[in-house]
Design brief:
This protein is of the alpha/beta class and 348 residues long. It is built from ten helices and 16 strands. A nine-stranded mixed sheet has the order 11-10-9-8-12-6-13-16-15, with helices on both faces. Strands 2-1-3-4-5 form a five-stranded mixed sheet, sandwiched between helices. It has a two-stranded antiparallel sheet with strand order 7-14.
Length: 348
Amino acid sequence: MSLINEGYMKQCLNFAIKGMGNVAPNPMVGSVIVADNKIIGIGYHKQYGGAHAEVNAINSVLDKKLLKKAVLYVNLEPCSHFDKTPPCVDLIIKHKIPQVVIGCVDPFAKVNGQGIKRLGRAGVDVKVNILQNECRALNKNFFTYHEKKRPYIILKWAETADRFIDARRDKESGLEAMQISNRRSKILIHKWRSQMEAIMVGTNTALLDNPHLTTREVRGKNPLRVAIDRDLKIPKQFNLLDKSTPTIIFAEKNAASKHNLEFVKINFKKNIIPQILKELYKRKVQSLMVEGGAQLLSSFIKDNLWDEMRVFSSKKKIKNGVKAPVIDLRPKKMEKIGSDKLQTFLNI
């Protein structure tokens, strides 16, 4: 059989990412088919419910006879079950492709090694875990959802140079939220929102900031809005209750749900974070960004229920206010966003 070329797997990843925002809750998958050291077919999963990457790659091959001596590269294990589309392994076996190189195993219960076994039983030479870390990283939301039974969680906040996230204020003070990060950072945050399936705030943030939690600064789909409102204090005229985009409010009381606005009752005598994550898991939400406030962010950190922290730091100082959550970690990545500094922390 031909030698494995990691460069082809990198091309699979480059094609796979083109499906971002269109394939969830399915993973992003790309496929490259090689014969005689030349690429003869390429494909990626373009749309949820549409053909998978391997199918598109095989269909793109002009001379199907070449498939009998080809190597199919794919960043995720081919599916082996009927769902919205037929099993990809059946098509691979049908065309007698002799070798398949797979980036990583699919953790979805209906696949999870079964595709690899079926290919092996059909006489296909299968190589697995090629650029495994890169392949898992591309679909980190998908893997977290299936392996940890919760969404991939990103905690995001902006803090001053003296580590405050806001001035001390309440509804009576009439003070507006501090603009800590700069314009470029704000646009980046809205881009992130467009890539997330859900975004969450606590009660104080909802009441004090009256946030939209939408992607107003960029083109992109609004995430599911999630807020905690134990006693249903959020005024009906506030943005979160405007029914412009799907929204879930977690409360202690029952309330009638309406179009794009759903109230879910949970037990506030117990830890509410696991209850919320369980509900989002049931709804197949694979990614969640928590935007505040300090109490909610600290609760996620205390429970060790997070995967990334993205922290903006500005040069502003206020000397007193609401303290930022405590981080006892070294950042995985640091970058400049105009006058702001962005640090990324990973929970690994």
